[in-house]
Design goal:
mainly alpha, DNA polymerase, domain 1, two-stranded parallel ribbon, 2 strands, RuvA_2-like, Helix-hairpin-helix domain-containing protein, Endo/Exo/Phosphatase_dom_1
Length: 109
């Protein structure tokens, strides 16, 4: 009976559009290069990062250079441990000024 109550609660949430909105951020979240991402990319792919925090990330990056790792984001005003942990798996730290080279073929192709 308790399972049915939980299930009916999910149905109600989905009927009112609340549940689908919560899944949108999970479905569309993708790892992003925080060193080249714009405000729209950051807000669309990171949890609990809105336009204000995304702008702060970009401004910090422009003043201080690319982020070396996730811990470096803690220097940005408004980014704390909890926010960082929610997003750690969706962060890439590639320097946009360094060209990415494709892996070399082993010659056994």
């Amino acid at each position: 009976m308790q399972y049915f109550k939980r299930f009916s609660h999910l149905i109600k949430l989905s009927l009112f559009g609340i549940l689908p909105l919560s899944f949108v951020s999970l479905i569309h979240a993708a790892p992003i290069n925080i060193n080249s991402a714009d405000v729209a990319t950051i807000t669309a792919n990171l949890t609990d990062i809105g336009p204000v925090k995304a702008t702060a990330i970009i401004e910090y990056r422009e003043l201080n250079g690319p982020f070396a790792d996730a811990q470096a984001l803690l220097a940005v005003k408004g980014i704390g441990e909890k926010t960082l942990e929610k997003n750690r798996d969706n962060l890439l730290f590639e320097d946009p000024k360094v060209p990415q080279t494709p892996p070399q073929s082993s010659g056994n192709d």
